[in-house]
Amino acid sequence: MAQYDLNDDDDDLPSHTAGAESGDAATPGSLETRLKSRAAWTVALAAVEQSGCIVLLITIGTLLIGIALDGRLQTKPMFTLCLTLGGMPVSLYLAWRIANRIVQRFLRQNSDQTH
Q1: Looking only at Cα atoms, what is the longest distance across the chain?
Q2: Would you state the pLDDT for residue 87?
Q3: Does 41 fall in a domain?
Q4: What is the pLDDT of residue 36?
Q5: Domain that holds residue 98
Q6: Residues near 103 by Cβ (< 8 Å), separated by ≥ 6?
Q7: Which residues contact 31 (CB under 8 A, 6 or more apart)?
Q8: Residue 17: inside a domain, yes or no?
Q9: Per residue in 45-64, pLDDT tens?
Q10: 110-to-27, 102, 103 alpha-carbon distances in Å
C-alpha cells in the first residue's frame, strides 16, 4: 500500500520540468505554462469579483436611496424604480470599465515580461 504525505502542497508544481532542461520552457505541461494559466485565472476571478461588487453596491445603494425618497415624498414606487433602473446601465458600464482595466493591466505586464 502506497503512503502519501498529506502535508505536501507542492505535488502539482515540480521544481523542474523536462521541457525546461531542453530549453523549451513553454511546453504545454511545463511549470511556466501552468503558472501563466493560473495567473490568467486569478486575473479573471479578480475582474469578476470587482465587477460584481460594483454592480451589487450600486444596485443596493440606488434601492435604498429610492426607498428613502419614496418614504419621505410619499411617492411609493416611483423613485425606487427610477433610480434602480437608472443605476443598472451605470453599474454595468462601471463593471465593464473595471474588468477591462484589470485585463489590460494583466496583458501589459505579460507583454513586458516576454520582451
Answers
A1: 76
A2: 96
A3: no
A4: 84
A5: 51-110
A6: 43, 47
A7: 13, 14, 16, 17, 20
A8: no
A9: 999 999 999 999 999 999 99
A10: 17, 12, 10
Instruction: Please list, in sequence order, all residues whose beta carbon lies within 8 angstroms of the beta carbon of residue 39, skipping any fewer than 6 positions away.
Output: 106
34 located within any domain: no
What is the count of structural domains for the chain? Answer: 1
For the four alpha carbons of 24, 27, 29 and 30, in that order, the dihedral sign comes to positive
Could you give the C-alpha distances from 95 to 35, 55, 65, 69, 90, in angstroms and in order?
27, 7, 21, 26, 9
Q: What cell does 47 get?
A: 475582474
pTM, full prediction: 0.67
Query: Distances from the Cα of 44 to the Cαs of 57, 61, 100, 115, in angstroms?
Result: 20, 26, 10, 23
Contact 17, 10 (CB under 8 A): no
Cell digits for 95?
Answer: 463593471
Note the helical H segments in 16-77.
Answer: 18-21, 31-73
**Is 9 inside a domain boundary?**
no
Residue in 39, 38, 26 with CA at minimum distance from that of residue 102: 39
CB atoms within 10 A of CB 16: 9
